[in-house]
Design brief:
Helix content: 40-55%
Strand content: 5-15%
Number of strands: 6
Number of helices: 6
Number of domains: 2
Distance between the termini: 74 Å
Structural class: alpha+beta
Order of helices and strands: HEEEEHHHEEHH
Shape: elongated
Largest sheet: 2 strands, antiparallel
């Protein structure tokens, strides 16, 4: 009980890993809780171990990011344009659903998008796959059958 009172009255916290009582300056800020429950040293050690244990997964993620850099840049451009009101979200072109996603036919033109609901967006990709320009900068248009 005295330890709880001590922690409440001072700017100290107990690390959930090493169990040491340390000044709040030894704990990183946390968005919701104010401070993290692990001290900076323990948190750093946890991150190192996690990276070593999951290195292949991190390397694969980095490969995919490099491979799809044009695609991710286009997605980011749309997100930024929406936030700055340079682009307005429209209803789905197929069914009129209000909640629609931006679909790129050409990732080299990041703000040239069509608006499709999640269902129609998935159907489009199931039918046509990933556009050939997802990893390159060349222009791609769907075959004539898709336009009908």
């Amino acid at each position: 009980m005295q330890q709880l009172e001590m922690l409440e009255k001072t700017d100290e916290r107990r690390c959930s890993i090493c169990k040491e009582v340390k000044s709040k300056d030894y704990f990183n800020l946390h968005k919701k809780q104010g401070r993290q429950s692990q001290c900076k040293e323990c948190h750093r050690q946890y991150q190192r171990e996690h990276y070593v244990n999951n290195r292949k997964r991190y390397e694969e993620r980095d490969k995919n990011r490099q491979k799809n850099s044009i695609k991710s840049q286009a997605v980011t451009a749309v997100r930024n344009a929406l936030q700055k009101n340079l682009l307005t979200r429209q209803p789905c072109e197929e069914c009129g659903e209000e909640k629609a996603e931006a679909h790129h036919d050409d990732y080299a033109k990041p703000l040239a998008v069509r608006w499709l609901c999640r269902s129609h967006h998935r159907q489009w990709h199931a039918l046509w796959g990933e556009a050939p320009n997802a990893c390159t900068v060349r222009h791609w248009t769907p075959p004539q059958e898709a336009a009908q």
